[in-house]
Specification:
The chain crosses the membrane at residues 9-29. By secondary structure, the chain is an all-alpha fold. It is built from 11 helices and no strands. It folds into 3 domains: 1-33; 41-142, no CATH class; 148-315, Ferritin (Up-down Bundle).
Length: 326
């Protein structure tokens, strides 16, 4: 009887040891199997932490620093918490001025875009990294006073955005004969985006005319002007991709059915909606055949950037993850 207890205990311990080894092996396999994806997140987290250090050390006023730091915190929360904890940023060697800080944001945007294109990053992760890159690119323009130019066709920032996204300011997006037809109720529909731009342009024209009669503020009219300029440029580009049989455009009268509203508030709401469609398109295209729809993927990024810029130029607040809110 005395020998039974040690033997039983030994057997139990052996079974527990085997289970631990098997469990540890499975955990090791999963970590190893997913290491490239975690490495991409770790690089992104390190980049964001480095930017945090740059912002804290910069000569920017607190009123500018606080929103930027809050945005970077929000972006870090979008990454895996364990990876973020392991990642280490770099400390600046000097005190960055606004120009230097803008350059750091530009560099970060380029790195995040590169990470988003990694084959090891899933569609959700790629869309989030791209969204962060757009936010950083726009923040750089905000720091140097060039944000308002992003939505203006022919401007230097419009050309820079074209280089960033790979889409020319005006030019075909898809092969000849392709039409952005489809379900306009679908969250990520190209047809819905086209209809949204058409309605935005017509509505902004109506709002501008109405503002002249109702005496809206000069700032509100300026916002409507800037938004219409940007939307018309986007619409010109989109029309280049229309086929001859595209019959999905909304009626011009859509703008006249608007309820009485302040132009600035309408532009903000419309911009958020269109940015949301751009982000949804980006995710859907990344989940689909990226090679087949690469043009629409790039165009979704451009939409996200322009709409976010139009919003941000009005309230001087660039969302940390543009297109995901509202």
């Amino acid at each position: 009887m005395r020998a039974t207890v040690p033997k039983t205990l030994t057997l139990v311990l052996a079974i527990v040891l085997i289970l631990l080894l098997v469990g540890g092996g499975l955990l090791w396999w999963r970590v190893q199997d997913n290491r490239p994806a975690r490495d991409a997140q770790r690089q992104a987290a390190a980049d964001l932490k480095s930017l945090q250090a740059q912002v804290r050390a910069s000569s920017a006023e607190a009123s500018r620093k606080d929103p930027m730091l809050a945005d970077l915190d929000e972006q870090l929360k979008a990454l895996d918490a364990g990876v973020v904890e392991q990642a280490a940023g770099t400390q600046p060697q000097a005190t960055p001025d606004l120009t230097g800080l803008a350059a750091s944001y530009d560099d970060s945007a380029a790195r995040l875009l590169e990470l988003s294109r990694s084959e090891h990053v899933d569609a959700q992760g790629a869309a989030s990294l791209t969204s962060m890159a757009v936010a950083h690119w726009l923040t750089a323009r905000q720091l140097t006073g060039r944000l308002v130019q992003v939505g203006q066709p022919g401007s230097g920032e419009s050309r820079a955005l074209a280089e960033l996204t790979g889409v020319p300011a005006v030019g075909p997006l898809t092969e000849d004969g392709t039409c952005p037809a489809g379900d306009r109720d679908a969250k990520a529909s190209a047809a819905r985006l086209a209809a949204g731009w058409e309605e935005a342009v017509w509505s902004e024209q109506v709002l501008r005319a109405r503002a002249g009669i109702t005496g809206a503020s000069e700032r509100a009219v300026e916002r409507a002007d800037a938004a219409q300029t940007g939307h018309e440029a986007q619409l010109t580009q989109l029309r280049e991709s229309y086929g001859t049989d595209c019959g999905t455009l909304p009626a011009p009268q859509a703008g006249y059915r608007l309820e009485e509203t302040e132009p600035g508030a309408f532009v903000t709401a419309q911009g958020r909606e269109l940015a949301g469609i751009g982000y949804a398109m980006l995710r859907e295209q990344l989940e689909a055949d990226a090679d087949r729809d690469a043009a629409w993927t790039r165009f979704a990024v451009r939409t996200l950037a322009v709409e976010t810029a139009l919003q941000a130029s009005a309230d001087l607040d660039i969302p940390a993850l543009p297109g995901t809110a509202g």
